[in-house]
Amino acid sequence: MKSKLDCILLIDDDEATNFLHTLVINEAEVTNTVVAKTSGQAALDYLNSCKENNDKRPQLVFLDINMPAMNGWEFLEHYKKLPKEVQGDVVVVMLTTSLNPDDLEKASSEREVTSFLNKPLKKEMVLELVEHHFPNLF
Length: 138
Description:
Elements: E1 8-11, H1 15-28, E2 34-37, H2 40-53, E3 60-63, H3 72-80, H4 84-87, E4 91-96, H5 101-109, E5 113-118, H6 123-133
Parallel strand pairs: 1-2, 1-3, 3-4, 4-5
């Protein structure tokens, strides 16, 4: 691998899942920074504040569907309304336990969603995604 992604953003209301997925991503050695947010609103706030706080803008986002207050679909609706410079050039992956075929169908109709994967995240999944979406890193 030539270089790493600057940042990967995890959006999942379960802190234990975020912790485990952070370990998996760090083990894959594909990014310099992993940021975990436990709600869609916290993730939107992070994205909106990246420029003013000099935070790293994520290049890859793992998004859970089933979250209280703002689920993954609602997050996407708000994300689409963000200015292009705030959105950045991001690969969004739905990472969920949902077995609902409607969720898979909806994900494939969303332009922003590039993949739909089932939890838990595994090192091989991370490596495959990065290799596919960021081939210049290899």
